[in-house]
Design brief:
The protein is mostly helical. The chain has one domain: Fumarate reductase/succinate dehydrogenase, transmembrane subunit (3 helical TM bundles of succinate and fumarate reductases). It is built from 5 helices and no strands. α1 packs across α3 (69-97) and α3 runs antiparallel to α4 (101-128). The longest helix is centred in the N-terminal third of the chain and has 29 residues, at 21-49.
């Protein structure tokens, strides 16, 4: 009877001090994925299944949702979680397939800068949205904006 030789132990890289960012990234992906499922299906249900369904979605519907702090925060949380989740997933792909250290570093920085820019822009849009900016007398929103303003 033959025995199998003991496997060679891999050379372990020395453990760096500080937080294990890969572990926390892995945990974030799982937690944000679960939260995103709830947020996205809630978003789709409210927008597509209640009221008149897809026929109700227009500028006034969005303006009405963004006038409520609950929906503002719902959409901002969904935006932040989705963009960070997506950027972290893309970072993992870049780390797996880009072998040149310099190129990998540039791509990862570009991913996080793009995600940060979109988070900033999206958050500003949600919290500073004003449907009455630029409304003229020809617009169907004119009466509504006049009653709110005066």
């Amino acid at each position: 009877m033959s025995t199998v030789a003991a496997p060679r132990s891999p050379i372990a890289a020395p453990r760096r001090k500080g937080p294990n960012l890969e572990k926390w990234g892995w945990i974030y992906m799982r937690a944000s994925g679960v939260l995103l499922v709830v947020l996205i299906f809630g978003h789709l249900f409210i927008n597509l299944m209640t009221g008149e369904g897809i026929h109700q979605i227009d500028f006034a519907f969005v303006a009405g949702k963004f006038a409520t702090p609950f929906w503002q925060w719902w959409d901002v949380i969904m935006l932040w979680l989705a963009l960070i989740h997506g950027a972290n997933g893309m970072r993992t792909v870049v780390n797996d397939y880009v072998t040149h250290n310099g190129a990998r570093r540039v791509l990862v920085w570009a991913l996080w800068l793009a995600a940060a820019f979109l988070i900033l822009l999206g958050t500003l849009v949600v919290f500073t949205f004003d449907p009455c900016i630029g409304v003229t007398q020809d617009s169907s929103l004119w009466e509504m904006c006049q009653s709110v303003a005066g």
